[in-house]
Amino acid sequence: MAYLSMGEAHRRITDYLSRFCDAVSSQDAATLSALLAISSNFASLQAPADALNVFQDSNQLVNQVERYAQFAEILSPLLRCLQSYRLGRYSDAYVAFEKAANAFLQEFRNWETAWAMEAVYILALEIRLLAEKADRELSSSGKNTEKLQGAGSFLMKIFGALAGKGPKRVGALYVACQLFKVYFKLGTVHLCRSVIRSIETARLFDLDEFPVKDKVTYMYYTGRLEVYNENFTVADQKLTYALMHCSPNKEANKRMILKYLIPVKLSIGILPKQWLLEKYNLMEYNEVVKALKTGDLRLLRQALREHEDRFLRSGVYLVLEKLELQVYQRLMKKIYVLQKQKDPSKAHQLKIETAVKALNWLGMDMDMDEAECIMAILIFKNLTKGYISHKNKVVVLSKQDPFPKLNGKPVSS
Amino acid sequence: MSDSGGMTSKGAEPIAVVDSRSTEIQAVDVAQTHGSLYSSSQPAVQSWSSSTGEQSVPNSSYYYDPQSQVSMSGDAQGMSFTSHASTSSNQVGVNSTQPYSGYAPYSSSTVPYNYNSVGFQNYYYSNHPLGNDSTTQQVEGDQNPGAAYQPLSAFPNSGSYVAPTSYLGTYYNAGDNQTGTGYENNSYNYQTGLWNDANYHNYPQHLYSSYTTSATTVAQSSTTASTNSLYYQQQYNKWPYCYNQAMPAVNGIAGTDNSHAAPSLQSAGYSAVGVGAGYPYSSNQPPPPGTTSWREDSKPPGVSSFQEAATPYNVNKTWEVVPPAMQTPPVNQQSYFNNLLKPTPLPNENQDNQPKVIYSQAPHIQHSSSNHVPEIFQTPQQTAPTTEVRQFSKVQIPTNPRIAPNVGVSLLKTQKESSGTNAPTRPAYVSVSMPKPSDKSSAEDHGKTKGTFPPSLCAYVDRSFARCKDDSQRSANENILKQVIAKATADGTLFTKEWDIEPLFTLPVEQSDQQSGSPWPITKRSPSRRRSRWEPVADENLNDKLTSVDDNATKNTSLGQVEAAEKVAVKNSGSKSVNGSVGYKFLPSQQQSILPKFSQRAMKKPRFSHTLSATENVDHSSDSDKEQNLTKYYASAIALADSPEEKKRRENRVKRFEKGHGNQTDLKISRSKIAAGSGAYTSRTSGLLKPTSYENGQSKAVEDIDWDSLTVKGTCQEIEKRYLRLTSAPEPSTVRPEEILEKALHMVQTSQKSYLYRCDQLKSIRQDLTVQRIQNTLTVKVYETHARLALEAGDLPEYNQCQSQLKRLYAEGIKGCYMEFSAYNLLSIILHSNNKRELLSSMARLSADAKSDKAVKHALSVHSAVSSGNYILFFRLYKEAPNLNTFFMNIYMEKMRFEAMKCMCKSYRPVVPVSYITRALGFSKLTQGEEIEDASIDGYEECEEWLRAHGAVITSSNAELQLDTKASASTLYMPEVEDAVAHGDANLAVDNFLTRTL
């Protein structure tokens, strides 16, 4: 770092402090949030951060001037955070930032209007980003990574300050989304439930009054939760909403939404176009889609095996696994179609033996009993219309639409 | 001892510089007041004289100076003889030793004087409060002033008294010291220990060498401190208890509000005060152990229990021993007390800096003591010595209860009754009621007591005393009466009981002989004491009682006055003490004011008169007589010093002390782990001791507990052991070492007995492993064995316990059947908890190795079978399940079958042969390869039964049973599980539980 004279350092710090105080007094949220954006806007904060390394006694500076001293609770830790961040000590920076954020939240509670909402957003964002950085730092040194957890509880605090009636509730959704991010990252997804409940059932919120971007994020996360619950209809709605309202420029966000939306759509019988997968680089689904189209069970299993890790991590593995029945259906349909081409009069009698042959040809080791069982399940799940004659080892297919399409409805369980 | 004398001399020099003011004053005062006394006593007490002599001033006045000096210097040992205890307490650690040494010699020499000393003690007490306060305040800042002051209290009592002060001081200073060393040593040490660790070492030596006195001192110092003559005798017995008490007291301080503990200590010292002070606090908070002890005393207030009260006791003793002496001493006492009373306000001032607790407590104590004094004083004059003894006790009784209530009330009401009460009596602090009883005969006293106690009870007390032939009996009587009344109080029958028809208790056989002529039965006392300590004692009852009494009596103003005075003082002090070094500055002032009073100088009130109305009142008392009285007192005491009785008593004390000594060492060893070599057990106990002591002392964090030292090394050689959930620390003798546990595991594995027996055995093995903190392959084996057994028995809760432990153990890298159990884990999630996220994460965690494992593969296959509803696959997998995977599948089997049947009913038309179902749904025991035509026999009936049980419609054609799918589709149902229990755990079913046999 370039040499900095004491005077210059003092000037920079004072500048920072006065800008903060000015922003608060003039209710300039944009400036304020810029000053709070430690990690996401560090470039503009580098000057005071450098100065802090030169000018050690910044606390005194804060306390000396009454204008600054009234925000000493915020400013002192904030300066410490800046300094620590500049030095790459993210864990310290996080601790200091949480302190500052806490004090800021206290102030924010006392402000009648929601003018500082933007700054609170920044707080919520920064606390998470800093916590993630701090945890990375901690884990690299073999220490307990608990900062993100702490950030989660702090975010919950912010959420509590926002949720409720009044002008500040518009910010609740943003904080809720930050919370979701933390919880998903921590794997404590179950904690989302309370947040969702307070948003959706408290009736304090009309989703329409929230900013669209927050709604998209919110829908994305709640949709993901529904995927976990294999509640495909709702998941489809939420994720579709997210995709529809997602900013067209945010390709990455769209991809993330599609990553979950595609399996959901698949499981309700809607297949994506090839170009979509290509455009958003979701080719791992390509083979799955292909298997569904062709009824190639082997391909499906192969695809699942191939991308098992990825699917397991994203949590769609089980969803994709369930596509197996649709692949069977496709396979049977193919047999039926072939039979129909061959002999339309007997097309409705699908011998189980034939099915076994087809399956064996696909490399599936199945006997009559199992094939019969699968046919029974297909009928049971409304994927096939007809009945099995055990005596004759024949599936008697309905003459009308023997293999109904799902058409957006999930497979009945 | 001689060394100590030398030490003192050394100390003197530095002292002089520091304390010049205070010492001077003291010197003068002392010389005047005590001088005569001391001089007379000196010859009798060699140690004393020697110490003083060395200091170069045989006279009392000089004597005092040295003390102060010593205290100043901080040489603990040197001081010892001169009763520097008090000073020592003021000063940090070093001094602490002094009190003992000083005290010890003094007592030994003075033993004969006991009662004299008692008188002084009282005196001291009164004085001490001042000293204490100052000391506490000064603790670090001004040692000198405190020291200077204390010299006055140089007497044995002072030592004890000082202890309390030191205690307070410690409290303020830091909790750490208390727990650390204090416990090991006697209570006294404990207190002193706070100051310096070094003290301990010095102290013990002194104690032992000093002999009897030391014991007493210890006892006294340890909260009880009352320093009564009674105490000496009792303390032999109690001593350990006292020690104990001290500890609790300390604990209380550390743990909860200091106010509590501190008062208890002081109260103990002042007995009477204790009652008063203790109560108010106790009501709010849990009473510290220390307080209870004195409370009991207070309970029987109606009776004689109050002997323990410092002043009253002294009086009693004096009477008994030397009737003639009594008369004079009382006067002295009064004067002293008055003086003492004055000092009390001072402490308050100083205390501004310190917590409020001190304020209220310290003043209380002092006041109470003062109250007693007047009583004593008056009584002796009036009646014959023998009767007086009784009277004293009785008189005290009434006063005490009142005091107690007063305190309580006063605390609550605070200044309600301020100066108004003071007016009636000349000596401000003397309770109004007191003078009357003293004037009257014993009978009258009782009558007076009636105010607080039912007349019948008084009569009862009279009766009981009437049959006493001598002092020892009387004391015994007192004790028993005390107990009786305490009991009645606790029962709430005090006022309802018909005391008139209550048969008198039988007096114990005279123990006076055993007690080396001491009038009070030692043995009797100690038990009662002990009881008091641990008895619940229903504080609330007492409180209620007291308050009620108070209301009835209405006369108990004295304490209220005191309170008011305190308050005033506090206020004044608050206003006055602007300086940061309040303690420091005030001390000198205190001394000045106090000392003058002592010496009856005009200086008396200058400071405090305006602050305290009470003080003024006190001043009125006969200060002029003080000196004379004191001298006489001492003279008589000296005369007694060499009496055979006293010698016996001394011997007794020595013995007692030795006992205590043993105790001490034990404790020390255990605590300090010196005895580490003595084996696992001792180390364990020490480990246990530590945490408890921490708890008591200052609540150390759990993580500070030395778990290593708590870990048990088992010695049990029994292979078989029933499981019993531990409710206390494990006993090594019942814990099996690892090699035995291995045998036990083998025994369980090969045992043919029921699961319950084996489960029980395994749990006990697990417990033994846990308490010994054994975590190795054996541990894994045990948990694996148990998990398997639990699975086989369908005991899922137990399995889950084992599984979670195994997860942890595997994670620590301990080898075991990892694959098998990760398969179980998967199956458990798939078939039992059905948590998708958990399954995902478990699957994601599987390594490539694991995925190729047979068991894990099987589990994954089961997963796909279940998720797709492939019943054929499921039951095939069921048949070829490795390890105990079958047992998991058992859990799900019923559900799978039902689902399958539903599926069949929907998809099959028109019928499905039962034989096929038998095969498909796993009723057949045959594996796939063995399919035969004849298979229908195998499991056929079972399948039919099952189908019927689930509402299937079965038809028969050609002698073959068939499932009518269409008809069945609407009639299928899941039957209630017969042995289902509301809480879902069949293992907890009552019938099952009751029929459990191992």
Automatic annotation (TrEMBL), chain A:
GO cellular component labels: transcription export complex 2
Q: Which GO terms describe its molecular function?
A: double-stranded DNA binding; RNA binding
Domain (PCI): residue spans on this chain? 216-402
Segments crossing the lipid bilayer: none
GO BP terms: namely: poly(A)+ mRNA export from nucleus; post-transcriptional tethering of RNA polymerase II gene DNA at nuclear periphery; transcription elongation by RNA polymerase II
What InterPro entries does the entry give?
Answer: Csn12-like, PCI_dom
Its name, as the record gives it, is PCI domain-containing protein
Q: Which organism is it from?
A: Zingiber officinale
